[in-house]
């Protein structure tokens, strides 16, 4: 009962943080008009959150390895709830940027604690499964974050921020009641020493770089699926949203059932086969003769993506048992950095190559290099 309760709680925390990440996108046209700013700078409302997250992740990681994770998660969620709700009160563009930046800081404080806490709270045989539940929270947020923001904004653009902030505050109460104390040791280690020891761990650095390569390739593709559907299949925005929901559903299902593959094949073999299937999916994707076929292939790819993400998180956590918070923060920062880099390359490739060929090639190369780094560590041979 305790494990189930904590699994649900971690799922909900990642769902709320993920929803806030995707919440602003459907509101951009409304907010651009409300603040009377140009479209070219409206994207700062999205990037300010990501910048706050990346900067804070580098600082909070070592801190969470020195102090009680429960307290850090609680404080992070409280500030996350207040900052997100404050976005709904922002009457100027500058205040919105500040509140989004603070929300990113708070998310970077709270989110990594979930990944770092799972190996400490659950038996080893349950870790991958619970990682999958947390991943499912992010997947669901990715699926419904945009439509949820649009639906709630029918009352007011402010209401989505109040709604998410209120849910986060409620989850804070549940964390206080149900999450046990973690890292209660009195021994304190200097943050600089934590990073110094971390960067001496060559295996951890190689796997972290592998994760960065994977996410760069992954976001290069995901960020421009809608553009590809519009250009190659002449789909309207509403139809594109429906197909994206189907693709996201594949990721959600994969995150829930990926642990079954691990039980069947062992973790190293499951990881290797999922890498291979992910790559093969992108090799055949650009040749899709219709949007239906493309959507089916992408749903299968993101089913594998949902299954492989918990394996990344569990293997990276296993590399640094004494600095799980630092590793969690760095993996999250790597994801946002990969999203930024992938977006830059994807924009160039979608413009200069026919269909999805350029982006698919880039993704295949990036994921193949990530797989090679794991293989060179002998990881796929481990039992």
Automatic annotation (TrEMBL):
Coiled coil: none annotated. SUPFAM superfamilies: MFS general substrate transporter. It is found in: Cell membrane. PROSITE patterns: MFS. Residues 6-378 form the Major facilitator superfamily (MFS) profile domain. It holds the Pfam family MFS_1. It comes from the Bacteria. One of its GO terms (cellular component) is plasma membrane. GO terms for molecular function: transmembrane transporter activity. Keywords: Cell membrane, Membrane, Transmembrane, Transmembrane helix, Transport. It is a multi-pass membrane protein. The chain crosses the membrane at residues 7-28, 40-60, 72-95, 101-122, 134-153, 159-179, 208-229, 235-258, 270-285, 291-312, 333-350, 356-375. PANTHER family: CHLORAMPHENICOL EFFLUX PUMP RV0191, PURINE EFFLUX PUMP PBUE. This is MFS transporter. It comes from Liquorilactobacillus hordei.
């Amino acid at each position: 009962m305790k494990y189930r309760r904590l699994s649900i709680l971690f799922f909900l925390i990642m769902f709320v943080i993920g929803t806030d990440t995707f919440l602003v996108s459907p509101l951009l046209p409304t907010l651009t008009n409300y603040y009377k700013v140009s479209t070219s700078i409206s994207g700062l409302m999205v990037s300010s959150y990501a910048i706050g997250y990346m900067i804070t992740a580098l600082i909070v990681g070592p801190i969470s390895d020195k102090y009680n994770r429960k307290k850090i998660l609680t404080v992070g969620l409280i500030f996350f709830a207040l900052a997100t709700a404050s976005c709904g009160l922002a009457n100027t563009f500058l205040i919105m940027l500040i509140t989004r930046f603070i929300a990113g800081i708070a998310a970077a404080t709270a989110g990594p604690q979930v990944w770092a806490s799972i190996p400490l709270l659950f038996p080893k045989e349950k870790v991958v499964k619970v990682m999958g539940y947390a991943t499912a929270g992010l997947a669901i947020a990715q699926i419904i974050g945009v439509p949820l923001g649009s639906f709630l904004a029918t009352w007011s653009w402010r209401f989505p921020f109040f709604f998410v902030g209120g849910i986060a505050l409620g989850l804070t109460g549940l964390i206080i009641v149900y999450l046990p104390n973690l890292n209660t040791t009195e021994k304190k280690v200097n943050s600089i020493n934590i990073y110094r020891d971390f960067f001496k761990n060559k295996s951890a650095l190689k796997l972290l770089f592998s994760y960065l390569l994977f996410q760069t390739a992954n976001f290069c593709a995901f960020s421009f699926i809608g553009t590809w559907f519009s250009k190659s299949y002449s789909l309207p925005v509403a139809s594109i949203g429906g197909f994206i929901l189907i693709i996201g559903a594949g990721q959600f299902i994969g995150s829930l059932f990926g642990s079954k593959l691990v039980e069947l094949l062992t973790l190293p073999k499951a990881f290797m086969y999922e890498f291979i299937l992910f790559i093969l999916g992108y090799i055949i994707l650009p040749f899709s003769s219709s949007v239906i076929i493309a959507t089916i292939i992408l749903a299968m790819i993101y089913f594998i993506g949902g299954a492989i993400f918990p394996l990344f998180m569990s293997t990276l956590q296993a590399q640094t048992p004494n600095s799980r918070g630092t590793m969690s923060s760095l993996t999250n920062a790597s994801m946002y950095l990969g999203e930024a880099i992938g977006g830059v390359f994807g924009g160039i490739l979608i413009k200069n190559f026919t269909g999805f060929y350029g982006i698919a090639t880039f993704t295949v190369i990036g994921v193949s290099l990530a797989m090679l780094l794991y293989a060179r560590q002998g990881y796929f041979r481990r039992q």
